[in-house]
Amino acid sequence: MQKITRILFMLALTFAASTVLFAQSAEEKAAVEKTLWNYLDGGTYGDTTRLIAAFHPSASMKFVDNKTGEFRDVPIETYLNNARKNAGKTSDRKCRVLSYDIDGTAAQAKVEIDFGTGMFHDYFNLLKINGEWKIVSKIFYRIDKQEKGG
Predict the structure, then answer these.
(1) pLDDT at residue 38 greater than cutoff 90
(2) Is 113 inside a domain boundary?
(3) How many domains, the chain?
(4) CB environment 133-149: b (16+ within 10 A), e (fewer)
(5) The model's pTM
(6) Which residues have C-beta within 8 Å of that of residue 99, sequence separation ≥ 6?
C-alpha cells in the first residue's frame, strides 16, 4: 500500500510541477507576443508609443539593401526617428507572427509584413530585461513583388 501511495504522490507532484511550468510558459508566450504586436501594430497604425515600447534603447537593425546589395547597420534610434515622421498615419499592410521560441530570458521570433507591393520577413532577438520582453536586435529581408503583366 505504501508503494501505491508513493506512486500517487509522485504523479501528483509531477502534475503540479508541469502545471506551474505550463502556466509560466503561457505567460511568457503572451508577453513575447505582446512585444511583437507592439512592433507590428505600432508600425501599422502609426502608434509610435507602442513601437518604441517594443525595442530596447540599444537595439540594432541590420540588413542587406535589396537594391544595392550593401550591408547596413542602423541604430534603432534612427529607425524610430523615421517612424516618428509617420506618427498617427495608418499603413495598409497585413501582419503575422510566424514563429517564436523562448528559452528562459532569451527568445527569437519571425514576423511577416505584407504591404501590397512587397513583403518584409523580420527576425528578432528578444531578451527579458527587468521583467519585460524587449527586441534587442532586428534583421530583415525585403521582397519586392513583381507587377502582374509587366
Answers:
(1) yes
(2) yes
(3) 1
(4) bbbbbbebebeeeeeee
(5) 0.80
(6) 109, 110
